[in-house]
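To: structure desk
From: M.T.
Subject: fold request, one chain
Message: Could you run this one when you get a chance? Sequence is below, nothing fancy, just the single chain.
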Amino acid sequence: MTSLIFLHFRKNKWWAFKQMGSHRKFFSDIDGLTFYKMLGTGSDPGFSMYPDFSTYALLLNWNDESSANEYFKSNPYFNSLISRADSYRRVSLSCFKSVGKWDNENPFIGDQNKIESDKYKVGVITRATIHFSKLVYFWRSVKSASDAISSAQGVSFFKGIGELPFVQQATFSIWDSVSDIKSFAYNNTNHKEIVEKTRRQNWYSEDLFARFHVLNDSGVKKITKPK
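Reply: Done. Structure tokens follow.
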């Protein structure tokens, strides 16, 4: 099981920004947690050169659902994040396909017994570490692809996420169905050209592509704070 939480801040932006450098000590010993990332987000849909300093994402991968539920119910650091945020959105995901690596591992090894089904909405994570020598080519080319995805049929949510500005970039999107993803991948000219360029010109030192069934999406929840 994978959890992706988007946290939006209006008043505590500086505190939120500092968490990008100080969060690791709070994830050293959590039962059932197999992989985690605190991520910044882009100000535009998809890959973006300009950060969104009001929004951050917490990506957590679990051995089981009970470990995730216990964390969200009782972990002091997570409760601190929520209490300082103005709103948040939590998406629960179950991977059915994952190809590539993130920090030399594939944290979302999919259950090969799961069948792609239009019964579920589908979450997609694409992630890459870009070769320094290819940064100019990457940033010159990706805007058209990001624009194409954000306006594609069947996309209900699309946001750029990342660890390091410019170099380590990712996107998360939610699609109405697997059929919509396949239609976009096979029929959108801009997207196909970008994919071919990345392979031909070897843009990435590491990349990953993962698909998930969306088990639950809480939508945006506003935090009620005492006056």
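Reply (cont.): The chain is about 30% helix and 40% strand. Let me know if you need anything else for the meeting.
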